[in-house]
Design goal:
4-stranded antiparallel sheet; 393 residues; 3-stranded antiparallel sheet; hpI Integrase, Chain A; 3 domains
Length: 393
């Protein structure tokens, strides 16, 4: 059977040739290196074949899904070619871009945290739907998409452009699989059509002396601010969570017995659940907070409303009250601070990235999440000891 690696490694020859997958699905490679899917079948004792699109616009898994649909047609006594032609003509006449996105989102919504998904939908309502939302997908051309994207780019919203462009491409590729269109109109848009994205860097400190000063400054917040914000700010250096993941932490996510925090996928940026090992120091701090009995639900409840948590803005305001300017440090800076120092201290990059819940592509990423928990437990214990050693200097 085929794999993505095998397909990518297929080289063009003097003549077009095919490589079989399974159940009559094969990929054809032209002398120019174009790779296209074909499904071969027999209907009424006559051999025939049908195109499923080009790779990688149509992935291996998508091609297999199409093959299963056409196999069912054969089982029901329907010619797959006739089925595809009828479906294509019907869909071409009816589906708008907005409808196509809605259909795609219904299938894929579980891949995204609710907060992320709603923010993305809002971006489409502002920047995409007013221009092409009611246009038929089949009528949309690369120039249409280029004009829409350039409007976003002109507003300096490079991050919005990146995410919206990615979702549009996925919607169009889904339409390719469905036979509505032949190609993704965003696929060949040149990258130099848009302004160069500026990397977003969060202000942080990385030198040991600066980290020591930061921790000592944070310790003073208990004299001027609330207990909840002080504890969250202090633990931010030890847990390395994103600000909202930290401030919204639930007691049900804290496993005291196994010394681990289990954050559900709905609260994570990647929409995947995340495990956070607790060091001895962190465990002791959580036990102290629990003893206070401030809230049954939230670890860091609001001092105004115990049924709500503090938020990341509370952490930013606390840093400013301590005299730490935004150019020097932000709540997100704890993660960058730790990443830099842990690399300098010799820890494995994959272990660090896994701890930060950064997406690692491919099989290696799956392996890291599954196998590196024990390594992360050791690293996080060492990290807590390292921070404590700076405080005692």
């Amino acid at each position: 059977m085929l794999t993505d690696l095998k397909i990518r490694n297929l080289k063009p020859k003097n003549r077009e040739y095919g490589v079989a997958d399974s159940n009559s699905l094969q990929i054809r490679v032209t002398p120019k290196g174009v790779k296209k899917w074909r499904y071969r079948y027999r209907f009424n004792q006559k051999a025939s074949s049908i195109s499923l699109g080009k790779y990688p616009a149509v992935s291996l898994s998508e091609a297999r899904k199409q093959r299963e649909i056409y196999q069912k047609c054969l089982f029901d006594g329907i010619n797959p070619k006739l089925y595809k032609d009828n479906l294509k003509q019907t869909l071409k006449k009816k589906i708008t871009f907005r409808e196509a996105l809605d259909q795609w989102f219904d299938v894929h919504k579980d891949e995204f945290a609710e907060r992320t998904a709603m923010k993305q939908i809002r971006a489409f309502e502002l920047h995409i739907f007013p221009y092409i939302g009611n246009k038929l997908v089949v009528d949309l051309k690369p120039l249409d998409m280029l004009n829409v994207f350039r409007e976003i780019d002109s507003q300096g919203k490079s991050e919005t452009l990146k995410k919206v462009k990615g979702w549009c491409s996925r919607v169009f590729r889904d339409c390719v699989v469905s036979g509505i269109i032949d190609n993704d109109p965003t696929r060949d848009l040149p990258s130099d059509s848009f302004k160069k994205r500026k990397s977003k860097h969060y202000a942080t400190v990385t030198a040991p002396s600066d980290i020591m000063d930061l921790l000592n400054t944070i310790s003073k917040y208990k004299e001027i601010g609330t207990y909840e914000v002080h504890q969250a700010l202090n633990l931010g250096a030890y847990l390395l969570l994103r600000p909202s993941e930290l401030t919204d932490l639930l007691w049900e996510e804290v496993d005291f017995k196994n010394k681990i925090i289990r954050i559900g996928k709905g609260r994570m940026k990647s929409s995947n659940p995340h495990l956070v090992p607790m060091s001895s120091q962190v465990l002791a701090q959580f036990e102290e907070i629990k003893e206070y009995g401030l809230s049954e639900k939230y670890v860091f409840p609001s001092s105004i409303n115990r049924n709500a948590s503090i938020n990341s803005e509370s952490l930013r305001m606390a840093l400013r009250r301590l005299g730490i300017p935004k150019e020097k440090f932000t709540p997100h800076g704890f993660r960058h601070m730790a990443s830099t120092r842990l690399h300098e201290l010799g820890y494995n990059t994959d272990v660090i990235e896994s701890q930060l819940a950064h997406k690692i592509r491919g099989v290696r990423g799956v392996y890291n999440q599954a196998q590196y928990l024990e390594d992360r437990k050791v690293m996080m214990e060492d990290w807590s000891n390292y921070l404590d050693s700076l405080l005692t200097e």
